Amino acid sequence: MLILSRKINEKIMIGEDISVSIIEIRGDQVRLGVDAPKSVKVYRQEVFDAIRAENKAAAESAVVFPELDLGVKREPLG
């Protein structure tokens, strides 16, 4: 992990098209601004973890399709 020190209005560049700006420092809270292309998804860690858990649960659940009664009589096979 790279650890950097920055002051208000200073930036950190990630690659050529993502920048993280220090907007405000108040007590033990830091407000950051992230400038990234729309194709790059940026989430807070807790939101990212919740999305990942929801996606995992959805992928692991069995999809059950109820049989539809369309009024069509079916003949037994065989």
Explained architecture:
By secondary structure, the chain is an alpha+beta fold. Helices cover 21% and strands 26% of the residues. It contains one helix and three strands. A three-stranded antiparallel sheet has the order 1-2-3, with no helix packed on it. Strand 2 (18-26) and strand 3 form a beta hairpin. The longest helix has 16 residues, at 45-60. The chain is rod-shaped and about 75 Å long.
What is this structure, in a nutshell?
With 78 residues, this protein is α+β, with helices and mostly antiparallel strands. Helices cover 21% and strands 26% of the residues. The protein has one helix spanning 45-60; strands spanning 11-14, 18-26, 29-35.
Biggest sheet: strands, sense, closure?
3 strands, antiparallel
User: Hey, roughly how much beta strand do the residues contain?
Assistant: 25-35%
Number of strands: 3
Order of helices and strands: EEEH
Average of per-residue pLDDT values: 89
What is the molecular shape? rod-shaped
Q: For the CA atoms, what is the radius of gyration?
A: 25 Å
Going by helix content, strand content and strand pairing, the class is alpha+beta
